[in-house]
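User: Glutaredoxin-3, Biomphalaria pfeifferi:
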Amino acid sequence: MADTTNNLSSSSVELIKDQSRFDKVVQDAGNHLVVVHFAASWAEQCQQMGEVLNELSKDPKFSHVTFITVDAESLAEVSYKYEIVAAPTFIFLKAGNKIDRLDGANAAELTAKVTKHSLILVEDLTKSTAKQDLNERLKQLINSAPVMLFMKGSPALPKCGFSRQITQILNEQGIKYSAFDILEDDDVRQGKYATKFKQQGILQKNSANTRYQVLVETKGLKSFSNWPTYPQLYIKGELIGGLDVVKEMVESGELKDLAPKEEDLNTRLKKLINQSPVVLFMKGSPSTPRCGFSKTIVGILDEVGVPYTTLDILSDDEVRQGLKVYSNWPTYPQVYVKGELIGGLDVIKEMKESGELASVVLKSEQA
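Assistant: Predicted structure for Glutaredoxin-3:
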């Protein structure tokens, strides 16, 4: 019998065929949005909505969204879990939890829901979770951009004179930076919180139920950096200092020397395609590809036994858009050998079938 699930396949939306893969995709997405299309191969509306989903997946503003298709009949347990009674049905997930659903074929409403739920709020990026250690979170924040400024307010609306001055200096120096408003997050600013039991601190009796609670106090970023005031400027994860230090470094010329230099995009792309003999630009990583084409091409390269380097174009929109123009190749994945574009999945398949791929790979290893 022919495999009718092929009717559900898409150029950039992965077709999930087993529950373990479904669970892994949802887990790997973390707090980012996952849009699950429960479809049936015999339903024409599913194919039409699949095309809509395919186009949404190509939109740069949804690069952080994971779009997948599930054969509702083949994965009965998953369909049962999400109460799927008809196809198409769309389930919207974040952190493994269902946040919304759409029953039926409505392209406009699907687009509206994807747009609504894909928004990355500041609070999503900055709120700590119960499981996340504050110091680990602070490490992630100070390393979230090459130049990171912790300030009161935002660069557009600073809420203290010191913060206003330091943003003006960075702008005048032409230094690209990201900013974090410490007034929006008291954990980062002050770090005060309470936990129960088995932690060293001040025991306080609760007269209501005679249980005890340990009150724990930390100092947030001030303690982490051993710097008592704001604003604080970090470069490559290292504390530079506050306003006075930054002013002194501007006068000496040290700040501009220390700040990362912005490369011309073409220069950066040239370095990336030459970083190893074989470079694959794909969606996701070899262990967690984010589209069917990327997954297939990884399988081919692994089968041939070629060592290769990868870059996830979903994590860098500048590279994702720029490389299409640089290489004059409109789609991903893209394979480069010794800095030269070989092509995408169709080309690699043909080269493998003709035996040419192994020959090209061998030459790259000998060079």
